[in-house]
Structures are given as structure tokens and as C-alpha cells.
User: Which sequence fits this backbone?
DNA sequence: TTTTGGTACCTTGCAATACATGGTATATAT
DNA sequence: ATATATACCATGTATTGCAAGGTACCAAAA
């Protein structure tokens, strides 16, 4: 049990929300997602992302299409489905409520 | 994969923070903690809390003492150690940064 | 005395999942 | 051909929240 581990735990919980949120503003493939998460200082690696995207796809939250790459193998571009949009809305609400809940605990006299 | 599951994931990450935060304002035993978390609508059950408190105690973040109960068996009251206080400080910082990071992803144009 | 009910502690087994690691395939350049 | 960069994916491990069940203490009722 160490601080970095625990902070990683906190990140985990919101990772799904972040991915759906990024995709809500436009289709992206895995490397896009990793880069955008990195920009926001959210550490994620391939081994985490591929299975997660697969789970979300299998749950009907995402669809994908293949697209040629300027260099290298084709890319799998993911898009939010309508179901994914609903899911995202609920997660956003849950996230905001969670912030309130935690702050209510932290600020209680 | 469903919304409740994912929201539970988000809760998990901040559970440690919440427990340490509650204890920072005074010693408490398990049922106290559960009640305070429930007040803040953070769902937690015994089977989660006991192992977690044990981990935190083994990590030197908490100490405990036995105290008589008005009715029933004695209670194990936990206190934050100095190490636990430092740990809490870092988690608080991590939590605030996480909020910023997630919001930077959500609000990006 | 025995039983019941409430409180409090803890353990075991399961399931979910992030991550490290390693593997495969494609395209281009040397 | 070989090397390099890009991109996909799978496997194994460790963590950990939770459900379920167990043990023990105390007081009051039967």
C-alpha cells in the first residue's frame, strides 16, 4: 500500500468516463486516446486501453471502423453509439455527485 | 459492464481518502465509519471496510485501541498516525489534481 | 439456565480489472 | 532482406471490493 498505488486507484475509476468523453468530441483510435489522456496527465498504457475499449464495444457503447493509415497498418477508429452517449451522461452525473460526496466528507466539521 | 458498476469503480478509488479524512477529525470504529460514509451516500459494507482498515493499519497509517462498548463486545477504535496524516495530505492533493485532469478532458473543445 | 437478539469483529471465495510483458501484422525505408 | 515504426491483441499477475458466512461478547427474556 503506497500513495502512488492509491492515486492510481482513483484514476481507474474515471478512466471510462474520460475515454467516452474524448470520443464524444470525435472519433479516435487507440493512440489518439492515449495521447489525449497523456496531455491531461492521465497515465494510461496500451495494455489497459485495448481491453477496456473492447469491453465498451461489446457493451454496445462504441462502434468502430477500419481506416487506412498514412504509414503503417490500418487503424481502428472508435465512435460513440447512442447507447454510449447515454452511458456517458450518466457517468458525468455520477462523477459530479461523487465530487460532492467526497467533499462533503472532507469538509464536514 | 453497466453504469452502476462503473460508478462503483469511481467510488472505490476515493474510499481510502474518505476513511482517512473521517479519521482525521477524530477516532472512530468500523460502524462509525460506515454510518458516516452512508450519510455522505457513499455505499460501503463491512466486508470492504474490515480488510481495508487492516491494510491501512499494516501500512502504518492507522493505529487502534480497544474500548468498552455500552452494550455488546468491545470496539476497535482507529486513529490516524503521523504517517497516515502525510498519506492523507498526498491523497487530498492527488484528488484535487484528478478533478482538474478529468475536467480538462471533459471541457476540452 | 437456556435462548434470543443485538452488536462487533473477522475470513474466505469470487469477480473485475489495471498493468507488465510479449506476440503478430503491416508499411516504408535502407 | 532487414530494420524501424506503427498498430493491433492476448496472457498472466496482483489488487481489491463485495457477498456470504463465521465467531464472540453482552444483556434481557423465557
Assistant:
Amino acid at each position: 500500500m503506497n500513495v502512488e498505488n492509491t492515486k492510481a486507484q482513483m484514476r481507474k475509476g474515471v478512466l471510462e468516463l474520460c475515454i467516452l468523453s474524448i470520443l464524444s468530441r470525435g472519433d479516435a483510435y487507440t493512440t489518439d486516446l492515449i495521447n489525449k489522456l497523456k496531455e491531461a496527465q492521465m497515465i494510461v498504457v496500451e495494455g489497459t486501453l485495448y481491453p477496456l475499449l473492447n469491453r465498451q464495444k461489446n457493451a454496445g457503447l462504441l462502434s468502430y471502423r477500419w481506416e487506412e493509415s498514412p504509414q503503417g497498418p490500418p487503424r481502428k477508429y472508435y465512435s460513440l453509439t447512442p447507447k454510449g452517449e447515454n452511458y456517458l451522461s450518466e457517468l458525468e452525473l455520477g462523477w459530479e455527485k461523487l465530487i460532492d460526496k467526497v467533499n462533503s466528507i472532507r469538509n464536514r466539521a
Observations:
- The two ends of chain A are 28 Å apart (CA to CA).
- Chain A touches chain B at residues 1-3, 6-7, 9-14, 16-18, 21-22, 25, 36-37, 40-42, 55-56, 58-59, 61, 87, 90-92, 94-95, 97-99, 101-102, 104-106, 108-109 (CB under 8 Å).
- The CA atoms of residues 1 and 7 of chain A lie 11 Å apart.
